[in-house]
Write a structure and sequence with these properties.
heterodimer, A: mainly alpha, Fumarate Reductase Cytochrome B subunit, two-stranded antiparallel sheet, 15 helices, 2 strands, B: alpha+beta, FAD/NAD(P)-binding domain, Flavocytochrome C3, Chain A, domain 1, 2 domains, six-stranded mixed beta sheet, 22 strands, 28% helix
Chain lengths: 386, 469
């Protein structure tokens, strides 16, 4: 009975053309477009977003936030759309979704005032990088000249005391942000609790980037209507490269404290292996993403977010490239400078982690988890359909 | 630039012809009248292919044997079809999908809202525009010369042989010669003057076609069709008033409203005309049948408009409409808001409500809810319209494509005085009337376009390369 009442209420709102809740302009645009998509449904096979859409008749704020973060901006539905520009309906789901996604990162940022850092994210990252570089170059210059190893320049405990608080704060901020997001989209996605199978499926979809496969396995769109795996591969290289680099640092920390084996490490030690492979992958991945982004079809995504994207890609590239350079320069006079650049860019990344593009992975994973839950619940709609 | 095969048109049939001809080794030029962003004609609005299959086949469940497909076609066309060409189309539909896949088309099972056709129709992932994109990409790879905004005004035919086409484009006009030619430039549904003339004036003094909406492309002006019929005296087939027509939201755009403007709640309520009266059994059959007949039913009503009326019980049980309905808490208020005569409307609704014999309502089967003692009867899904709020959707006839075309045979040749041309072929909407004299069944337009596009392309290549057809 509750379902029926809810349906009636929704239909009433729909018939009166009034979106429910206080939608922002980008959210209203998503609701408008999804009303068209829901009456068409040709794109159901491409990704998770469209099947999730078909479980709804009306799109409230939480639905829109959930669906926007479910969208992977693969572009398939834009190129397949009979209502895409220049059609008067002007349907461009990837762009509408990207715009709302950008908004959710800012809206759910913790603490709230720092969400504003998303508004000019290119500038945010540039300033963070400048500050990080300045800090470590200054620190290096005041260290002993001609030092041969890292810890002679920056003592280990000193580095830990700098990075640990920043990193822990970033983790906390992201966790609090996504917790609020989760609480908002939960009721809009049946409210059912997360189960093991749902979590397993979502984890699989995240780690495999399933929804960049186009639904048919040939990949997503980039510069035109042709499908390709480049973006998925470049993203995999970036993500797993980042994970390996992070693992290298973690293992090194373990070596340092647990086994009393301080750096530097050499091949074939585990930290070195992880770092070297991860660094090369991250370099290749970010260069690939950069190339693809430069070639991207102009109708894909939200142009206003390009500085955020380029900033994030650039920063990751700088971290991986400076890390590799550092290795090459070991024992040479330029090493302290390379070390300062590397640590400065890592610091800039960590400090802005809850306020840069990194958030996309967190919110999208949350949406995929809720989608995996929702799809296992019975559909309250019984469309006799065609 | 030397061309063996000239393909005129840029939709599914034209692309199938171009791909087949190119695969056969011919140099092919394809002329699309529309600019690139509007390419593909009505194919961009399609979404599935009706397929014969004797056993489950990837996305298709159970079986849909030739005989059943044929009987379905016989039923919807009322026998106005050519059995030989129809069976050829049906058989071709069972074998063409691997070829389609090779050229980049992806199929998927219907996921929601279209389960009634899961057995009979294979759905294109992303719909017809994705299919059109795939075919263009494949054609480019095969070296087909593709020209957009290239309109063919007339062709030269000598003794039944194609000689040249006169093309106007942004670069001016030019004469293009080729060894053979495939005509696949669509019907004339976008030509409103022609539609008006074809439908004429009715007994109420109205010009019904003035109130029609065109569901697809604005580029199917029928220029070549008229030229072939009038100037070259090509053999014709079909009635110019016959077309695939659907009842669509009266607020749909004049062109290219496509699938999303359909109104899917007809069977869940009643449909009244401008005078507030019912005129047909809303519960006669499921969507595929309903879909095909309601456009024409509405075309016959005064003002070519009708109103689909439902109550809250129906909400959530049909495909959501693209535009919000008119809503009211009471039926008289709804009639008023819709501009219908309240008294007649209430009389209609009251007698319908009183006539409902409710059984076990199930909108997924032909259930036992029906009316008694009201005319026209509603034979299924009849439930009183009594639970507010009430909703009304104005509907108008939406023309998908017209059936007047060029008569052809199993070689897809254009015929002059019952003699087949050796090098001029036809495919798609320009000849669909050979198979579809009237009526429609979901996905059969693409079956015809694909079958005859491929035959036309093959034979055009043979004609151009001097191989015996």
């Amino acid at each position: 009975m509750n379902t029926l009442n809810a349906l009636t209420r929704e239909a009433k709102a729909l018939a009166n053309g009034e979106p429910m809740g206080n939608l922002t302009a980008p959210e209203t645009e998503v609701a408008r477009q999804l009303q068209i998509c829901n009456a068409c449904r040709y794109c159901e096979g491409f990704c998770a977003m469209f099947p999730a859409m078909t479980r709804r008749l009306e799109f409230g704020k939480a639905d829109i936030h959930f669906l926007a973060n479910l969208c992977h901006n693969c572009g398939a539905c834009l190129h397949a759309c009979q209502y895409a520009p220049p059609h008067e309906f002007g349907v461009n789901v990837p762009r509408a979704m990207a715009t709302v996604r950008g908004q959710t990162y800012a809206d759910y940022a913790w603490p709230a005032p720092l969400g504003r850092l998303y508004q000019r994210n290119g500038l945010t990252l540039s300033l963070a990088l400048a500050a990080g570089l300045a800090l470590f170059i200054w620190l290096a210059s005041s260290a002993a000249a001609g030092a041969a190893d890292f810890y002679a320049i920056f003592p280990h405990n000193f580095l830990v005391s700098l990075f640990a608080p920043v990193f822990l704060f970033a983790v906390l901020a992201l966790a609090l942000g996504v917790r609020r997001f989760w609480r908002d989209i939960g009721p809009a996605t049946t409210g059912a609790p997360l189960t093991g199978p749902a979590a397993a499926e979502a984890t699989h979809d995240v780690l495999r980037l399933k929804y960049l496969d186009g639904g048919h396995g040939e990949g997503c769109n980039n510069e035109d209507d042709a499908f390709g795996m480049s973006r998925r591969r470049a993203h995999h290289l970036t993500f797993y490269g980042f994970v390996l680099c992070f693992a290298a640092t973690s293992v090194a920390t373990l070596y340092h404290y647990a086994f009393n084996l301080p750096a530097p490490y050499d091949l074939p030690s585990l930290p070195k292996l992880l770092g070297a492979v991860g660094g090369v992958m991250l370099c290749m991945g970010t260069l690939g993403l950069l190339r693809l982004k430069l070639q991207r079809h102009p109708l894909h995504g939200d142009a206003a977010q390009k500085p955020m994207d380029y900033g994030f890609i650039g920063l990751l590239f700088l971290i991986s490239a400076s890390g590799l350079v550092l290795w090459a320069l070991r024992g040479q006079a330029q090493m302290p400078l390379a070390l300062a650049v590397h640590l400065g860019s890592v610091m800039a990344l960590f400090a802005t982690l809850p306020y840069n593009k990194f958030a996309h992975g967190i919110y999208r994973s949350a949406s995929l988890l809720r989608h995996a839950v929702e799809k296992r619940q019975p559909n309250r709609l019984g469309l006799g359909g065609e | 630039m030397h061309t063996d095969v000239l393909v005129i048109g840029g939709g599914n049939a034209a692309l199938c012809a171009a791909l087949m001809a190119a695969e056969a080794g011919a140099k092919v030029t394809l002329l699309e009248a529309a600019p690139r962003e509007w390419r593909g004609g009505n194919s961009g609005h399609t979404r599935n292919l009706r397929c014969m299959h004797d056993a489950p086949q990837d996305v298709l469940v159970d079986a849909y044997p030739e005989e059943e497909f044929w009987q379905d076609l016989l039923k919807v066309t009322g026998g106005i079809t050519n059995e030989h060409l129809a069976r050829l189309t049906i058989r071709a539909s069972s074998t063409c999908r691997d070829w389609m896949r090779k050229h980049g088309v992806h199929f998927q099972p219907p996921l929601s809202g279209a389960l009634h056709v899961a057995r009979t129709n294979a759905f294109f992932m992303g719909g017809g525009k994705a299919l059109v994109n795939a075919y263009y990409r494949s054609a480019e790879k095969l070296g087909v010369q593709i020209r957009y905004e290239a309109k063919v005004e007339r062709i030269e035919v000598e003794d039944g042989c194609f000689v040249a086409a006169h093309v106007s484009s942004t670069q001016g006009t030019e004469r293009l010669t080729a060894k053979s030619c495939v005509l696949a430039a669509g019907g004339f549904e976008s030509n409103r003057d022609w539609l008006r003339e074809a439908w004429g004036q009715n007994e109420r003094g109205e010009w019904p076609a003035e109130n029609f909406l065109i569901r697809g492309t604005q580029f199917n002006q029928g220029t070549l069709l008229k030229h072939l019929l009038d100037d070259h005296g090509a053999d014709r087939i079909g009635d110019p008033t016959q077309a695939h027509m659907v009842a669509i939201d009266a607020r749909a755009p004049l062109y290219d409203g496509g699938i999303c403007t359909r109104i899917d709640c007809v069977s869940l309520g009643v449909v009244v005309n401008r005078d507030g009266q019912r005129f047909y059994d809303e519960g006669e059959d499921f969507w595929p049948k309903r879909y095909a007949i309601w456009g024409r039913l509405v075309a016959q009503q005064p003002g070519q408009i009708a109103y689909s009326i439902i109550d809250s019980k129906a909400v959530g049980r049909f495909m959501p409409p693209v535009f919000p309905g008119v809503v009211a808490d009471t039926l008289p208020e709804l009639a008023q808001k819709l501009g219908l005569p309240v008294d007649t409307f209430m009389q209609t609704l009251n007698s319908y409500n009183a006539a409902c014999r409710e059984g076990t309502f199930d909108h997924t089967t032909l259930d036992d809810c029906h009316t008694e003692g009201v005319s026209p009867a509603k034979t299924h899904w009849a439930r009183p319209i009594d639970t507010g709020p009430f909703y009304g959707y104005a509907v108008r006839p939406g023309v998908t494509f017209t059936y007047l075309g060029l008569k052809t045979d199993d070689t897809a040749a254009v015929r002059f005085g019952d003699v087949p041309s050796p090098n001029l072929f036809v495919a798609g909407e320009m000849m669909a009337g050979n198979v579809l004299g009237k009526g429609y069944t979901a996905g059969v337009g693409m079956s015809i376009g694909t079958a005859f596009g491929r035959i036309a392309g093959t034979n055009a290549a043979k004609a151009a390369l001097g191989v015996q057809a």
